[in-house]
Structures are given as structure tokens and as C-alpha cells.
Write a structure and sequence with these properties.
The protein is α+β, with helices and mostly antiparallel strands. The protein is built from four helices and five strands. The strands form two sheets. A three-stranded antiparallel β-sheet has the order 2-3-5, with no helix packed on it. Strands 1-4 form a two-stranded antiparallel sheet. The longest helix is centred in the last third of the chain and has 16 residues.
């Protein structure tokens, strides 16, 4: 029958006409973002080992890392700049970070008037958080449980 697709389409449209409205009044009501939302970047400076893997993984070379060696001959981060105006937001830098120092955050309001203001200086804008001071969890629980098994076998003998 001619116009059958039009009738089906209008039926769907009229069905949605009487549903509950879900419009958010954005500036007054903040949107609820999913946990894995990719907004902007944040850097946990104490975790960063200045290895440069993130800058090597970036296809546009937007990350510039500055580091110096300390008295123990270990690299220490002294600067971390990102030219966000050229960033693809592909996430290769976040995936390449071995210590998970570079993370996505939920900041999506990045509009600026001048182009220079778009660039990120993640080292100087770092604010310490309580998560930085938590001790690292043991990777394998078998190592901590192993001495207990040895004691049980020694007592049984």
C-alpha cells in the first residue's frame, strides 16, 4: 500500500508525543554523566614518572613533558603541557600511561574566548587529592596468603 511507511513513522512520532519530557535545564541543572565519560584531562603529579610514553603515543604530538633528574638519578616531572586546541581526544595518551597518572575527568565546559587559553598546563594546575596518598594495594593476594599455608603444613608435621 502506498504511504504505509509514512503512517508507521507518524505513529511512532505521536507515540513519543505523550511520553514524559526529559529535557534538562542545563546551566541550572548539571547533567548526570556516565562514569566513563571522556571530558578533559587531569594529571596526578606524584604518580607521574616522566617516562614520556604519553607524548610518544599522541598522534598529533600535543603533549610536552619537562623533567629533570634528582639526586638519586631518577626523573622528576617539572612541567606537563598539552595543546588541547590540536588534541583529537583519542585517549591513546591515557591508555599508554603505565602508572595511570593521566586520567579523563568530567570537565566538558572548555570553551574559551582566546585560543591561548585552551591549552592545558596540567603540572601547575595540579591540586593534591586524598587518593594520591593511599598506599598501593598488593597486586597478588596469593603472596600474602602463602606464609599462612606454610605455617599450617609445619604445624601438621
Amino acid at each position: 500500500m502506498f504511504g504505509q511507511g509514512l503512517i508507521k513513522g507518524l505513529g511512532i512520532t505521536f507515540g513519543h508525543l505523550f511520553e514524559k519530557k526529559i529535557t534538562q535545564q542545563y546551566p541550572e541543572e548539571r547533567p548526570v554523566l556516565p562514569e566513563r565519560f571522556k571530558g578533559s584531562f587531569s594529571l596526578r603529579v606524584p604518580k607521574c614518572i616522566a617516562c614520556g610514553l604519553c607524548s610518544n603515543a599522541c598522534p598529533n604530538n600535543v603533549i610536552k613533558i619537562e623533567s629533570e633528574k634528582d639526586e638519586n638519578n631518577k626523573k622528576k616531572l617539572t612541567g606537563y603541557k598539552m595543546m588541547a586546541e590540536r588534541c583529537l581526544y583519542c585517549g591513546f595518551c591515557v591508555e599508554a600511561c603505565p602508572t595511570k597518572a593521566l586520567l579523563w575527568n568530567h570537565n566538558f565546559e572548555r570553551a574559551k574566548f582566546f585560543r591561548e587559553d585552551v591549552n592545558l598546563d596540567l603540572f601547575n594546575s595540579y591540586v593534591p587529592s586524598p587518593e594520591d596518598e593511599k598506599p598501593a594495594k598488593p597486586e597478588k593476594e596469593e603472596e600474602t596468603a602463602k606464609p599462612e599455608k606454610e605455617e599450617e603444613t609445619a604445624q601438621a608435621s
